[in-house]
Amino acid sequence: MTVRNNRAWLFVLPALLVLALNAFIPFITVVNYSVQDILPGLNPIWVGLENYQIVLQDALFRGAFVRQLGFSFLILVIEIPLGVAIAMALPKRSWLATASLVALGLPLLIPWNVVGIIWRVFTRSDLGLVPLFFNAVGYQYDVALNPVDAYWTVVVMDVWHWTPLVVLLCYAGLNSIPDAYYQAAEIDGASRWRTFLYVTLPRLRSVLTIAILLRFMDSFRIYSEVFMLTGGGPGTTTTFLSDVLVRKAVGGFEFGYAAALSLVYFLVILIISYVFFLVLTHVGTGTRSTQAGAQTSVE
Where are the alpha helices (DSSP H) in the chain? Predict the structure, then answer.
């Protein structure tokens, strides 16, 4: 019988307690606000679930929610395959690999609001490089007035900012795959595509699960970059859930509505992330079972 030594938890427990308190107190405060009508200078009024009903019936919330889902899934479709492709194209274990990783990681070091300012300068009609390029090919680019330009500029900005995170995760995962797997695939005469499909991809499953969950949750929290670049416009083209929340809480002082919206926001992210996790785990388990069955039949 194996006896486990759990003394290490004694060192982690104080940090976990501090984090739990820091998370629990704001969470309970938000829950309390969500069931009250709160206006500055007046006593709170108990309204029960009325704020939640208002949120779910609000056309601004529903539009931002659909827009947010589309944006988040589009980001995943672009950044995950692109990150895997770039990671596979990078050299391995050399000074060039180190220099490439450092260069790719630079966007991750830039604060979110600064990213928005940088791209705002890039897209200015009077001195930006992006309008200059499009004008050279005969297209009238205007991020302030054209909804298509604004939306896809936000998408490209997010891809530029966060794809390096996927690259770094995938690069670490690729380097952890033993060379023996690739040697066996080469001996069996497997093509590059089949080697990627049956050797590389299954062993990147854990890394890709982390990358997908991180990018999905981060994309749902996007605010500073879009606020600095487009301000949520033109119209509501780039108005996402975070922007609606800030407008209600900071601009409109609708603290009860904002608290209810933030809890709905939290539950949406939690549920969809959990579904992602279940699906990815199920796919990974099914892949391992298929491989094990194939190996048994060959033996």
Answer: 8-34, 50-57, 59-89, 95-105, 112-122, 129-136, 147-175, 179-187, 192-195, 201-203, 205-220, 224-229, 241-246, 255-298
Taking the C-alpha atoms of residue 297 and residue 267, their distance in angstroms, rounded to an integer, is 45
Main-chain dihedrals φ then ψ at residue 203, nearest 5 degrees: -85, -5
Model confidence over 165-216: pLDDT tens digits?
A: 999 999 999 988 888 888 888 888 888 888 888 888 888 888 998 899 999 9
Handedness of CA 83, 89, 92, 97 (dihedral sign): negative
**Residue 177, H or E segment:** none
Q: What is the amino acid identity at position 227?
A: F
Instruction: State the Cα angle at 39 between 38 and 42, rounded to 5°.
Output: 100
Q: Which fold has domain 53-290?
A: MetI-like fold (1.10.3720)
* Positive or negative torsion for Cα 212, 73, 247, 258: negative
pLDDT tens per residue across span 77-91: 999 999 999 999 988
Nearest Cα to 228, choosing from 135, 161, 136?
Answer: 161
For residue 178, what are its two tokens?
């033993």
Instruction: Name 45's bridge partners.
Output: 37
Long-range contacts of 30-33 (CB under 8 A, 24+ apart): 30/259, 30/262, 30/263, 31/259, 31/263, 32/259, 33/255, 33/256, 33/258, 33/259
- Separation of alpha carbons 257 and 33, rounded Å: 8
Q: Are 248 and 232 a contacting pair, CB within 8 Å? A: no
In angstroms, the CA 117 to CA 229 distance is: 7
Q: What DSSP line would sit under 107-170, residue for residue?
A: GGGS-HHHHHHHHHHHT-TTT-HHHHHHHHTT----TTT-HHHHHHHHHHHHHHHHHHHHHHHH
DSSP designation for 234? S
Spatial separation of the C-alpha atoms in residues 120 and 106, rounded to whole Å: 18
Structural domain boundaries in the chain: 53-290
